[in-house]
Amino acid sequence: MTDNLIQRTASAYTYPLLIKNLLQGPVVNNPKQEIVYRDQLRFTYQQFRERVCRLAGALTELGVKAGDTVAVMDYDSHRYLECFFAVPMLGAVLHTVNVRLSPEQILYTIDHAEDDFLLVHEDFLPIVEQIKGRIDTVQHYILLSEQDEQPATGLPMAGEYEALLSAAAPDFDFQDFDESTRATTFYTTGTTGMPKGVYFSHRQLVLHTLGVLAALGTSTSQGRFHQDDVYMPITPMFHVHAWGLPYVATALGVKQVYPGKYTPDMLLGLLEKEKVTFSHCVPTILHLLMNHPSYEQVDLSNWKVIIGGAALPKAMCEAALEKGIDIFTGYGMSETCPILTFAQLTSEMLKEDDQAEIRCKTGRPIPLVQLRLVDEEMNDIPKDGESVGEIVVRAPWLTQGYLKDQRNSEVLWRGGYLHTGDVANMDRENYAKITDRIKDVIKIGGEWVSSLELEDILCSHPAVGEVAVIGLPDTKWGEKPLALVVHKENAEQITAKQLLAHTKEFIEKGMLTKQALLLKIVFVDSIDKTSVGKINKKALREKYAAS
Ligand code: AMP
Fold first, then answer.
1. Pick the catalytic residue: 82, 179, 335, 453?
2. Is this prediction's pTM over 0.70?
C-alpha cells in the first residue's frame, strides 16, 4: 500500500483555521462598513479592527495570556463583538456568562470555568457584588460602563473598558497557534442537574462560520444572507455566540447593529432606522415585537428572520408572512455550536401558496452536518415524514464533551454520535420536523402525543396568547397532558370547554390522535420561563405534579 498522505515542503505554510483569519477579508474589502450600537455609537470596520487590537493590548497589559479564561457579562453590544475576536485571538478562552441564571448558578459557572478575568456591565454589578466573596479564581475585573459617572463598586476594578482601550495601541501582532485551541466556553441548562460547560475551538468556530455562510449565502431567493444585508442579532450573545451569526456577519463584512438591552421600542426603532434586513430570535421575542403597539407601523417587508431555540408556531409564521417578513426555522443546541439545520425553501417551494408548513419544519442539515434519526438501538428510522426517532448528529463543530464532566460527555456522545434528545421525523426531501423532545414527549396509554403539536393547535385559537403542554403522571394512562394557557390580551374570554372543542376539531380532521382528548386545560396569568426565555417544562412539571 502506498502512503498517500500529503508531503509537506519544509517551508510550506500550514494555514491554521484561526478566528483572526475571519477578520482579514472584511477589514480590507469593506473598511468603511459600519458597526452600530443602539442609538449611541457607530464606527467602521477599520476602527473595529483597531479596537480589537486595543482590547488585546489592554488585556495583555493586565496579564491575560494564552490559556487564561476571560469572562464577559454584557448585553448584545459592539464590546461583546470585540471580545468575540480579541480574547480567542490572544489564545485565551472567552467565557460568555449567562446573565439570566441565578447568582448561585453564575457563581458555579465562573468557578467551574476557572475564569481569570471578568468584564462586567454596570447593570450586572449587583449580581457580582452579591457573590464576590465566594469567587475564587478571578484576578481582575473590568467595568463596562455607558454612563459619564461610573457607578460605585466594592469590586477591585482594573479599569473601565473605553479608558483601557484609549490607552492601548491600535496595532497588535496576533500570533499563530494550534487551531484546536479552545476559543470559547459557556454553560447550558438544557439538561438535568447543574449547568454543563460546552466548549469550541478556533477550527470549529471557523468551520461553523463557513458552513453557515454556505447554507445562507447560496440560497436562491429566500433566507439569503449576503453582502448588502444589515444584520442585527436578537438572541443573547452569551447564548451559543448569538448562534454564531456575529462571526458570519463579520466574515461577510455587512453592516452590523447591536441592540444592547432588549426592549421592544429599541428593537423596532433600530429595525426601522438602521434598515435591518437579517436577524434571528426565539419565538418569544418575535411574539413580544408582534404585540407591541408600534409593530403595525414598522415596515418589515425586507426583514429576514431565523426563528430557533424552539419550534416556530404556524400561526406566528403565517402572521409574519402576511406582514412580508421572510421567516424560517433554524435548529441547533448549545452543544452543537449551534447551527445544524435551516428550513429554507427551494425555488419550486417558493411558488407554492402554503409555505408556512415548510418554514415551520426544523429544516435540512447544512453543509458538513450528518444528521440521523435513530431508535434506541441506533437503527435508522425511515424517512417517510411520519416515523419518529431521536436526532443524532456529527459535524466538525460539535462540543467534544462537557467541560470536566466525563460521565455526561460519554452519555452525550454514546455510539459516536452527539445525542440531541430531540425527537423528529424526516420527509423524503430531507426536511426534519421536531415533534418533541425526549424529556417532553407525553406517552398516553402507550401512545406518543406531541406536546409541541398540541401547543400549536391551542395557539391557533384567536383567544390564546401563550400555551405550554406538559405530561403529568396518571395511574390509568401512564401520563396525561396538561395545558397551561394564558389568555391573549384584549381577546374575548374563553372557557376550557371551548378550547377543548377547538382541539376536538383537529382530532376529527385526523390531525391529532384521540388520546389528546384527555387534555386538561388550566388558565394561568403567566408561564414559567428559563433564563433564556424558553418555557421551563421541568419547573412546570414539578409545580403541577399534584394537580
Ligand atoms: P439550547 O441548548 O438551550 O439552545 O436548546 C436546544 C434545544 O432547543 C434543542 O435541543 C431543541 O430541543 C430546542 N430547539 C432549538 N431549536 C429548535 C427548533 N427550531 N424547533 C424545535 N426545538 C428547537
1. 335
2. yes
Q: Would the CB of 451 count as within 6 Å of ligand 1?
A: no
- Tell me, in angstroms, the distance from the centre of ligand 1 to residue 280's CA: 14
- Using the mean position of ligand 1's atoms as its centre, give its distance from the Cα of residue 371 in Å: 15
Closest CA to 338 of 452, 219, 200: 200
Confidence of residue 193 (pLDDT cuts 50, 70, 90): low
C-alpha to C-alpha distance for 517 and 113, rounded to whole angstroms:
47
Nearest one of 385, 381, 362 to 437, comparing CA atoms: 362
Q: What is the pLDDT of residues 247-278, one digit of tens each?
A: 999 999 999 999 999 999 999 999 999 999 99
Give exposure, 454-474, as e/b (b: 16+ Cβ within 10 Å).
bbbbbbebeebbbbbbbbbee
Is residue 308 lining ligand 1, measured as CB closer than 6 Å?
yes
The pLDDT score that the predictor gives to residue 127 is: 93
Rounded-to-integer distance, Cα 281 and Cα 465, Å: 18
CA distance 211 to 217: 10
Order of strands across the sheet that contains 464-474: 464-474, 478-487, 520-523
> Measuring from atom 22 of ligand 1, which residue has the nearest CA?
310
In the predicted model, what is the mean pLDDT of residues 338-364?
93
Please name each of the domains of the chain with its CATH number: 19-27+34-199 (3.40.50.12780), 441-543 (3.30.300.30)
Among candidate residues 448, 488, 504, 513, the one labeled active-site is: 448
Instruction: Count CA within 13 A, CB hemisphere, residue 192.
Output: 7
